[in-house]
UniProtKB/TrEMBL annotation:
Its EC number is 1.3.8.6. Residues 146-235 form the Acyl-CoA oxidase/dehydrogenase middle domain. InterPro entries: Acyl-CoA_DH_CS (IPR006089), Acyl-CoA_Oxase/DH_mid-dom (IPR006091), Acyl-CoA_Oxase/DH_mid-dom_sf (IPR046373), AcylCo_DH-like_C (IPR036250), AcylCo_DH/oxidase_C (IPR009075), AcylCoA_DH/ox_N (IPR013786), AcylCoA_DH/ox_N_sf (IPR037069), AcylCoA_DH/oxidase_NM_dom_sf (IPR009100). This is glutaryl-CoA dehydrogenase (ETF). Residues 31-142 form the Acyl-CoA dehydrogenase/oxidase N-terminal domain. Keywords: FAD, Flavoprotein, Oxidoreductase, Transit peptide. Its cofactor is FAD. GO terms for biological process: fatty acid beta-oxidation using acyl-CoA dehydrogenase; fatty-acyl-CoA biosynthetic process.
Amino acid sequence: MSNNTEPAGTSRTGTGSDQLSDVLNLDALLSEDELNLRRTVRRFVDERIRPNIATWYEDAVFPTEIVQEMGALGLLGMHLEGYGCPGRSAVEYGIAAMELEAGDSGLRTFVSVQGSLAMSAIHKWGSEEQKQHYLPGMAKGEIIGCFGLTEPTAGSDPSSMATFARRDGDGWVLNGSKRWIGLASIAQIAVIWAQTDDGVRGFLVPTDTPGFTATPIQGKLSMRASIQCELSFEDLRLPGEALLPGAKGLRAPFACLNEARYGIIWGTMGAARDSYEAALAYSLQRQQFNKPLAAYQITQQKLVDMLLEIQKGTLLAIHTGRMKDAGTLEPVQISVGKLNNCREAIKICRDARAILGGNGITLDYSPLRHANNLESVRTYEGTDEVHTLILGNHITGIPAFR
């Protein structure tokens, strides 16, 4: 078992690192309420995630015991209004995502699956009865949800999904499969997308329904402190009221995916920042050839390059969040942030690991864990290639997806 307490110098409770690393004074762009929220979530990460994350990661355990703690902090569905949801701003949600992912991508992913995907689907497309029934408990963490869109042969192209729901009297019969579905084995309610004779529709499926099977995917090298599952539906019968009445066509799940993609813009910068800070602290302490690593020009170049990309990526996140709060954010702009910040974050984490040398491959330090997690974050909610083609279509007017 690895040491599950990260070395001195990686804690985010102090202010010295902020003052040295926020060279553009981006904190000046945040309100006092936003800064207070950051302090609250950062404290939660320092106290509840950092001391345990290496063990959770090594043992491939998702800590269900902190789910209701997250609910009590207002982190679940925090950008949604009404029905017991916190109703915070897009920027506040982004700040929380950044701090959570500085702890671990798996924990931020839980908040995203619960709030940006499952709860958003119900909030956007559900009936009043469905909203009243599920959202208050989900906001408290008493009910866990999952979101089933991706299939074994339909990842980047969900229009080719094979899962099908056919009408049967007043109800539905669901058959098919899904893959890489977060939280499914611990969820009580699943938002499942399926083809029908009327196009793609969304359904609320209690996970104890006969014919529903969730099997956790084993042997993961990434997102180990999280849960992803294979789902299968075998003649699964649903009542008519299981249908999400407002969800028609792929625009419905895509609207939820854009909520999740937005959170990734912020979250990846949290992983990058934590890796940078671990490398900076190590380089100041580690002696080689009678002086600290930080005294060497190559090390300083690596640290400066990391800092520049973190500052630019964070500025991009803040700007994107302000547009979202103003109601002016377009999907293509979300693609800019998702593509750029994922790509830069994973490079930062790898470069941070290099500064740590051989010690960096252990769970005593965070950068390689973050880099491994970001392989998943970079892939889900649209790969680099997909977001590149979205942007390519935008600037040329020519779709190149097929």
